[in-house]
């Protein structure tokens, strides 16, 4: 007896691409603009795709000078004007290939681009061989040093660590391994011990309330997990944003509410002020978020990351910069399809965006220190800093072969600026094999945030909000009232 199975065309699986085209098209143009590279992305739309594309560009240290985004009707269209970290067009063919492949597959699991990524990010695969640990809580002078010392006592080697401090809150992501084997730590009992010890360190911080009582840090300050492969820097930075958001760094700490900080000088000559405003376009059910602040690298990643993690969808956006100032405009709705309906919702988004803009960069002296790597190195360095009255307000620590590369932003224990010469004098007290020791002026935190001042748009700035309002008004003039 012969059985005839139904015939399936082998090209059937490719039918959607043959009808509608590929799910994502990427065009990298080095000819249209004289001073920058233009990247155009057309893709089937999905929630979070803009953040994924911006992550790809940010992860290779591209500066986004200008961008236009539209994602209505199920299709995502975006144009980016970018430069590399040296201010030039993208000329490295490996980087161009990575951008093509990474953005084209943002809708898929990134296994398909790891081989290409390895050529561009050689440290990413190292992180997959270690255990990730996340910490969040109330900050205090010397806390990062205490965390480092606790991990050494627990026989953990710190391979890499990143810590942000903002509004008296701390978020830290560290990559650790076993001291003796340098393997990931996967024993559940030992991981529990690590979490308990670090939780005790974090909970030693108490936050005084205006009534004089004290309130312990919130639960679940510490979480450990074995990293998946291919972790990159923007994954870490997004997690730091999420941790800071969860610990409430968008609110001033209670002790600051008791005694207002000293006033900053008025005026905007130095471009420090951050201005965020939100208005609704009721005709189109959008909320229009407008941001004006000092321009810096990774700014678009920070704002898009925060809007996405707050469960808002970006439908249109316009990004520009002029004379060192950045101008961003986002048309958003909540994932439930509604615009921001209350002043409370608007104020919450404004505060969270202000915090996202400010928390990455720090006022303070920047210490760049490279040394021969060894067990306990980070603990020893931060202990000397703490004993000399220096507090770490941000840290980026990496291991490169036999060398440890550390960058610290430092203030004194009262949060004041410190003299660079004083930081340089601390070097002689460090019992480490220093390869490089350099003290620099740090960045600034963007100054005092204000949400009430009107935005001053730069000459030639294209505002989607103004264009939409103009279109609505033009249509409205054609309506004939019905009696």
TrEMBL record:
<dbReference type="InterPro" id="IPR002912">
    <property type="entry name" value="ACT_dom"/>
</dbReference>
<feature type="domain" description="ACT">
    <location>
        <begin position="38"/>
        <end position="114"/>
    </location>
</feature>
<feature type="domain" description="ACT">
    <location>
        <begin position="366"/>
        <end position="447"/>
    </location>
</feature>
<dbReference type="Pfam" id="PF22754">
    <property type="entry name" value="bHLH-TF_ACT-like_plant"/>
</dbReference>
<dbReference type="Pfam" id="PF01842">
    <property type="entry name" value="ACT"/>
</dbReference>
<keyword id="KW-0238">DNA-binding</keyword>
<dbReference type="InterPro" id="IPR054502">
    <property type="entry name" value="bHLH-TF_ACT-like_plant"/>
</dbReference>
<keyword id="KW-0677">Repeat</keyword>
<feature type="domain" description="ACT">
    <location>
        <begin position="132"/>
        <end position="213"/>
    </location>
</feature>
<dbReference type="InterPro" id="IPR040217">
    <property type="entry name" value="ACR1-12"/>
</dbReference>
<dbReference type="InterPro" id="IPR045865">
    <property type="entry name" value="ACT-like_dom_sf"/>
</dbReference>
<protein>
    <recommendedName>
        <fullName>ACT domain-containing protein ACR</fullName>
    </recommendedName>
</protein>
<keyword id="KW-0539">Nucleus</keyword>
<comment type="function">
    <text>Binds amino acids.</text>
</comment>
């Amino acid at each position: 007896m012969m059985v005839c199975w139904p015939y399936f065309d082998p090209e059937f699986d490719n039918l959607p691409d043959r009808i509608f085209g590929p799910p994502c098209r990427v065009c990298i143009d080095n000819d249209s603009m004289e001073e920058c590279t233009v990247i155009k992305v057309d893709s089937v739309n999905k929630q979070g795709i803009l953040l994924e594309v911006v992550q790809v560009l940010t992860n290779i240290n591209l500066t986004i000078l200008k961008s236009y985004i539209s994602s209505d009707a199920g299709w995502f269209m975006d144009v980016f004007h970018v430069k590399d970290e040296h201010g030039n067009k993208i000329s490295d063919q490996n980087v161009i290939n990575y951008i093509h492949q990474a953005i084209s597959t943002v809708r898929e699991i990134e296994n398909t681009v790891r081989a290409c990524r390895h050529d561009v990010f050689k440290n990413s695969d190292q992180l997959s061989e270690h255990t990730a640990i996340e910490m969040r809580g109330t900050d205090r002078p010397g806390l990062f040093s205490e965390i480092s010392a606790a991990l050494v006592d627990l026989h953990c080697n710190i391979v890499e660590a990143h810590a942000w401090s903002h509004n008296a809150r701390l978020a830290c992501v560290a990559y650790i391994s076993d001291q003796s084997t340098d393997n990931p730590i996967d024993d559940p009992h030992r991981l529990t011990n690590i979490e308990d010890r670090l939780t005790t360190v974090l909970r030693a911080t108490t936050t005084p309330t205006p009534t004089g009582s004290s309130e312990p840090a919130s639960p679940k300050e510490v979480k450990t997990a074995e990293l998946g492969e291919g972790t990159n820097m923007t994954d870490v930075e997004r997690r730091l944003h999420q941790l800071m958001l969860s610990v409430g760094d968008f609110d001033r700490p209670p002790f600051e509410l008791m005694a207002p900080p000293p006033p900053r000088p008025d005026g905007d000559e130095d471009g420090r002020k951050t201005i965020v405003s939100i208005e609704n376009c009721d005709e189109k059910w959008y909320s229009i978020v407008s941001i004006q602040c000092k321009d810096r690298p990774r700014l678009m990643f920070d704002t898009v990351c925060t809007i996405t993690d707050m469960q808002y969808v970006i439908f249109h956006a316009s990004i520009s910069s002029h004379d060192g100032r950045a101008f961003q405009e986002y048309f958003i709705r909540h994932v439930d399809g509604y615009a921001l309906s209350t002043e409370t919702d608007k104020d919450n988004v404004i505060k969270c965006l202000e915090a996202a803009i400010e928390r990455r960069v720090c006022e303070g002296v920047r210490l760049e220190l490279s040394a021969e790597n060894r067990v306990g190195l980070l603990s020893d360095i931060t202990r000397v800093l703490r004993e000399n009255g220096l507090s770490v307000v941000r840290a980026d620590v990496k291991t490169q072969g036999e060398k440890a590369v550390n960058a610290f932003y430092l203030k004194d224990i009262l949060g004041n600026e410190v003299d660079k010469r004083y930081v340089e004098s601390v070097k002689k007290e460090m019992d480490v094999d220093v390869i490089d020791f350099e003290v620099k002026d740090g960045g600034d935190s963007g100054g005092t945030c204000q949400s009430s001042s009107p935005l001053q748009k730069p000459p030639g700035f294209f505002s989607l909000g103004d264009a939409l309002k103009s279109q609505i008004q033009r249509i409205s003039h054609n309506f004939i009232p019905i009696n």
